[in-house]
Design a protein that fits this description.
GO molecular function, one term: mechanosensitive monoatomic ion channel activity
Number of strands: 10
CATH class of the largest domain: Mainly Alpha
Pfam family, one: MS_channel_3rd
Radius of gyration: 34 Å
Subcellular location: Cell membrane
Strand content: 15-25%
Organism: Christiangramia lutea
Structural class: alpha+beta
CATH architecture of the largest domain: Orthogonal Bundle
Number of helices: 7
CATH topology of the largest domain: Helix Hairpins
Keywords: Cell membrane, Membrane, Transmembrane, Transmembrane helix
Distance between the termini: 107 Å
Length: 278
């Protein structure tokens, strides 16, 4: 390549820098200042949310949405500095938005699901929920996903769209929850005798809701034994520890009183022989 070519290229580059250089510098400065400004705004917003009485689930959602909107506004300003007309800018973003929307229909559904969750509040951060065959405590509600932590320490991330369209069993929305113990006894046992024994065992629990009933009822007559339903109430957050402790307490109280669990028996008849039991 000859010398004239390089001189012409240098002149064109110089003209380009003179024409567009200041805008690039302004855009770069705006980007840097904008990022710092967004960080300051988010710190102020997080502090205001911490001081307010807004639920934790709403706080995380607002923070995620605010970051998205602030960066979108920053890029809009940078585009304007670079000479992109507002109408063109909106048209480009509109076209891009349609394309992205078609490609990310699931994400838009998740966003709408997150809004529905925060508006209608089927659950909040800290609740124990059962949804889509998963049981766990709600750790975070984001703009697109909900995270729960299971009893064995796993973190499960579920799309908000699926969650908002599913049946959600919120097991801590009510303060108290009933414990149901299914017990089996031989037909030889006297129900009026074992009922106060079971109640006495359950009433010893320190976290029992004493203003709610403790009761024992015959629930079903089985083939080999009668089935008893023993019920009491505890605070929802104490349900599983209390359930296991109550089951153990009832067993110990029955053992103390000499009440045995049923053993299946079979009666065999044979012609010409006496009845045989096993």
């Amino acid at each position: 390549m000859d010398k004239d070519f390089w001189l012409e290229l240098k002149e064109q580059l110089l003209v380009f820098l003179i024409e567009i250089g200041p805008e690039l510098i302004y855009a770069l400065v705006t980007l840097i200042v904008g990022i710092f400004a967004i960080r300051i705004i988010m710190n102020i917003l997080k502090g205001a949310l911490r001081r307010s009485k807004v639920e934790l689930s709403l706080k995380t959602f607002v923070e995620s949405l605010s970051i998205f909107l602030l960066y979108g506004f920053l890029f809009f300003i940078i585009g304007s500095i670079l000479g992109i007309k507002t109408t063109s800018f909106i048209a480009v973003f509109g076209a891009a938005g349609i394309a992205v929307g078609l490609a990310l229909q699931g994400s838009l559904s998740n966003f709408a699901g997150g809004v529905l969750i925060l508006v209608f509040k089927p659950f909040k951060v800290g609740d124990l929920i059962y949804v889509n065959e998963k049981l766990g405590f709600v750790e975070k509600i984001d703009i697109l996903y909900t995270r729960i932590k299971t009893f064995d320490g796993r973190i499960i991330t579920m799309p908000n769209g699926n969650v908002s369209n599913s049946d959600v069993d919120n097991r801590t929305m009510e303060r108290y929850r009933r414990i149901d113990l299914d017990l089996k006894f031989s037909f030889d046992e006297d129900l009026d005798h074992i009922r106060p024994i079971i109640i006495a065992g359950m009433e010893k629990h320190p976290k029992l809701a004493t203003h709610l009933p403790v009761d024992v009822w015959l629930n079903e007559i089985g083939e080999y034994q009668m089935k008893i339903k023993a019920r009491c109430w505890v605070e929802s957050v104490e349900y599983w520890p209390a359930y296991w402790e109550q089951l153990e307490a009832v067993k110990k109280e029955l053992d103390k009183q000499g009440v045995k669990m049923p053993i299946p028996k079979h009666e065999i008849y044979k012609e010409g022989m006496a009845q045989i039991s096993s």
